[in-house]
Design goal:
Strand content: 35-45%
Radius of gyration: 31 Å
CATH architecture of the largest domain: 4-Layer Sandwich
Largest sheet: 9 strands, antiparallel
CATH topology of the largest domain: Purple Acid Phosphatase, chain A, domain 2
CATH superfamily of the largest domain: Metallo-dependent phosphatases
CATH class of the largest domain: Alpha Beta
Helix content: under 10%
Number of domains: 5
Number of strands: 56
Structural class: mainly beta
């Protein structure tokens, strides 16, 4: 590789660079492999053995290639950069590392076998990406492992990560290679079809920032670089190593030197995607690209059917698309890109829409404060929440400010937010409040600072609440919860100010069951800050809390102080800490159901001054000290309003279900550190609401039903009819889950279903109707006939056949270079297709072909075999 010019993808130019051998005068080059047996070998190469790794290469697929196995529990993949493959277990013939493309779905994969000293030597530890890799497109792939965490990168963006914590087999004597995988005796298996450029192996785990920064540049020699092959030779049978280790590669079976990839890179997503302002019917999707394109979000209710789209035609690197017209409480999958290309997608590119405002639904809220340290502590807190959540969807995600230390620059936000939480950002809308470090300590910043450019706020009341008219503070509703984000940093906190006037109006207009306020500066703290001496903290306590408590606030969340502090259930404390009295404790217990006093009790209606809990959760990235300098685990002189004060890092989880709110502080280990419950007990027991979003999916002589949980329900009843609109007969009662399979259905009959919810008070109305018609699976298609193969050039053979079936989904075409055996799948074409052009072949070589039809029920028998010899 030589210098890289960032330009748009031009298909004709791509083909020219791939197929034409480069003249020897070229300054740069690349290496084309045929996918049959071409590869580069380095032999056992002990200098390339490593216990920490970064593997990198640019690649462009020209065909399917041939996959190989990395061992039991590993992957079957087409190799890119490797040191070993499946051979033995628990010895030095285990694999050191493998970077490749999974054969089944064409996503990036990496694997290693566990080395000596691990709990299970010889065990495979694979990781897989999410983006299918197209033929004819240049990509940059990278994999890193630091002894604890796998990370996969595509085009400089994080694709996947996995905590493993096991050692690599760094003493492996298996051979290192490009484009294949070789065992300890030198036998190759699996072959990449396409072009490789700028391959690198490091014995250190490079950071995401280093991966992105180094993607488009030559790195000939640097600390930790143990092998670098620019593949710029343009002639000969050797690939030179410029790292200084002189691990020269040998070209095997005649790979072709071709032109450099200078002009074929497509735009790359460098930030996000991330979600903003999620409602029951809309969401904002945002991302950044390295070059300007138009913006397009493709979406749908299944990952394989993104049939709807939204976007705009303006060329930009900062993409923002409002996706509207969505259904409530529905999972949507999406991709981001341009009108001509999908740039990022995957099975975890999905979100759930909110319930309609005023509709109760079990809700998970994740709260992070002062998490912007962009370090291992913040990552551990994130991983602790992931371990605790065990796959539970995050409905609402709050950040309490100081999201990016130290000055809230764009680069700091990239490292502290976008590189730290990529999987959460693309699945859950993030709502934030502003902290002092987000403004660089400025109390009157311009709206052009990165914080305001990154976060969208519903200033127009489009997500519920009274419009604020400013991005500095806002409110929104989720189900029966009203959230209020206040600005304790840059807006006036004086009585009669714009923010306080708006706050009174907003509280006066809400009828929601729960009110949760969040802002940065805590009204009560004796952590790394002192609420008795600092102006923002004093003013929030003296001027804002009386309004919140009069409006019936239930929970107040803050950060700023680098500790975890949680109050009793209190009301009416607006002065210095010395003025706090026990009379201000509405309840003096822990708020824990399993301890004396039990859960905190509160009237169900929005009763003024009935009590609230205050949490300081500035422990999302670090904890420091208490007022006075003590670093003791527990505060030796806590604020008297606080029940618990501790120097533990973590995050806060809220689960709201009906009249119950459960709060837990989750440590970086995933363990629960503190917990309390708030129950609104004066609500009379009510019949649950009708279940929402009933769906019916037809199968073979069965129908699968699913629906959203109804708050307060203890069981569900499924009813069925064969007439649209009923009447319905009970099919099953006492169902404890939100899914049911009707196994009594007959194929060809349309069934209409409704579901009701019940509790001790009674039964809800029926849900909306859903219908489905079970059908038997189709017959296996008939085999195609009359297959012919005709060589039309030295690199192309044309195939044609007769389609003998009317129910195929497509045809699978196989090829071999040996008559009667060794066939490999080379292409899959659609239904009713009767021809295929096989390109990229070698001259004067005989190729054998066969094909078969397929559908959902299986594959037909094979066609006849046809062969052709390419021309000179």
């Amino acid at each position: 590789m030589n210098k890289i010019l960032r330009k748009s993808l031009v298909p004709a130019l791509v083909g020219m660079f791939l197929l034409a051998a480069a003249p020897s005068a070229l300054a740069g080059g690349a290496l084309a492999l045929d996918g049959a047996n071409d590869h580069v070998t380095f032999g056992p190469a002990p200098a390339l053995g490593a216990s920490n790794i970064t593997l990198e290469t640019w690649f462009r697929r020209s065909g399917a290639g041939v996959a190989t196995s990395t061992g039991s529990g590993g992957v079957s993949a087409v190799p890119l950069v490797t040191k070993g493959r499946s051979e033995g277990d628990n010895s030095n013939v285990d694999m050191n590392y493998f970077l490749g493309i999974r054969g089944t779905d064409n996503v990036l994969v990496a694997d290693f076998e566990e080395g000596a000293g691990g709990a299970s030597p010889g065990l495979n530890h694979p990781i897989a990406g999410v983006t299918p890799l197209s033929i004819g497109v240049w990509y940059h792939a990278a994999a890193t492992y630091d002894g604890n965490k796998w990370q996969l990168f595509l085009n400089g963006a994080l694709e996947a990560e996995l905590i493993v914590g096991r050692p690599l087999r760094s003493d492996s004597i298996q051979h290192a290679a490009l484009g294949t995988a070789i065992n300890s005796t030198g036998v190759a298996s699996g072959y990449f079809a396409g072009t490789l450029d700028e391959a690198r192996i490091w014995n250190v785990a490079r950071s995401p920032a280093q991966i992105l920064a180094g993607r488009d540049v030559d790195i000939n020699s640097e600390a930790g670089l143990v092998g670098r092959w620019g593949l710029d030779e343009n002639s000969g049978t050797s690939a030179a190593d410029t790292s200084g280790n002189n691990v020269t590669g040998t070209l095997v079976n005649g790979p072709l030197w071709v032109g450099d990839r200078q002009t074929v890179s497509q735009p790359i997503v460098t930030r996000g995607p991330y979600l903003q302002v999620g409602t029951a019917s809309s969401i904002i999707v945002r991302w950044r690209t390295d070059t300007a394109t138009d913006s397009r979000v493709r979406f749908g209710t299944s990952v394989g059917s993104l049939t709807s789209s939204a976007g705009n035609a303006t060329l930009t690197t900062e993409h923002e698309v409002l996706v509207s017209g969505l259904s409530p409480v529905m999972r949507y999958y999406y991709s981001v890109g341009s009108s001509t290309a999908t740039l990022a997608s995957g099975t975890d590119y999905s979100f759930y829409t909110a319930p309609p405002i005023g509709t109760a639904q079990p809700t998970r809220v994740w709260v992070l404060g002062d998490s912007g340290t962009k370090d291992a502590v913040a990552a551990a807190v994130r991983n602790g929440y992931t371990a605790f959540g065990a796959g539970r969807y995050t409905d609402v995600w709050l950040m309490l400010g100081d999201n990016a230390y130290n000055n809230g620059t764009d680069a700091e936000f990239q490292a502290a937010v976008f590189d730290m939480y990529p999987s959460y950002l693309r699945q859950a809308p993030l709502w934030s409040t502003i902290g002092n470090h987000d403004t660089g300590q400025t109390t009157n910043p311009s709206l052009s600072i990165p914080y305001f450019q990154i976060f969208n706020s519903p200033t127009d009341g489009s997500a519920g609440g009274v419009p604020s008219g400013t991005e500095r503070y806002y409110s929104f509703d989720y189900g029966r919860i009203h959230f209020i984000s206040l600005d304790s940093m840059t807006s006036s906190r004086a009585p009669g100010s714009a923010m306080l006037t708006w706050l009174e109006a907003d509280l006066g207009s809400t009828t929601q069951d729960w009110i949760i306020a969040f802002f940065h500066h805590p009204p009560y703290t004796k952590g790394s800050h002192n609420s008795d001496t600092e102006s923002q903290l004093i003013e929030m306590r003296a001027n804002v809390l009386p309004i919140l408590e009069a409006g019936g606030v239930d929970l107040v969340l803050t950060g700023h102080s680098h500790s975890y502090e949680r109050s009793f259930f209190i009301n009416g404390h607006y002065g210095l800490s010395g003025t706090f009295t026990n009379a201000m404790k509405v309840e003096a217990g822990s708020g824990r159901e399993n301890e004396s006093g039990g859960a905190y009790d509160k009237p169900a209606d929005l009763v003024a001054n009935a009590g609230a809990v205050y949490v300081v959760a500035g422990n999302g990235g670090h904890v420091t000290n208490w007022v006075g300098g003590s670093t003791a685990e527990f505060n030796p002189a806590p604020h008297p309003a606080m029940y618990r004060s501790v120097l533990h890092v973590g995050s806060l989880v809220l689960d709201v279900d009906g009249n119950r709110l459960d709060a837990k502080m989750i440590r970086e280990t995933g363990a629960v550190d503190d917990y309390f419950t708030l129950v609104k007990t004066t609500t009379q027991s009510q019949v649950p609401l009708a279940p929402a979003t009933l769906s019916a999916t037809a199968g073979n002589a069965q129908v699968s039903l699913s629906w959203a949980a109804s708050s307060g329900a203890t069981s569900y009843t499924v009813k069925r009819s064969t007439s649209n609109g009923g009447p319905y007969s009970m099919l099953a009662a006492g169902i404890a889950t939100t899914a049911y399979t009707d196994a009594t259905a007959s194929n060809g009959t349309t069934y209409y279903y409704v579901v009701s919810a019940s509790n001790g008070t009674g039964e809800s109305p029926d849900s909306s109707q859903a219908s489905a018609t079970p059908v038997a699976p189709p017959a296996v298609p008939a085999a195609p006939t009359g297959l012919t193969a005709t060589a039309i050039s030295k690199t192309q053979v044309n195939l044609s056949w007769i389609d003998q079936s009317n129910n195929e989904s497509g045809f699978r075409i196989e090829r071999s270079t040996v008559s009667g055996s060794g066939y490999k799948l080379i292409a899959t074409v659609g239904a009713n297709t009767t021809s295929y052009a096989n390109t990229g072949l070698k001259s004067r070589k005989t190729y054998y072909y066969r094909l078969r039809a397929y559908n959902a029920s299986g594959d037909s028998t094979y066609s006849n075999t046809a062969s052709a010899k390419t021309l000179k």
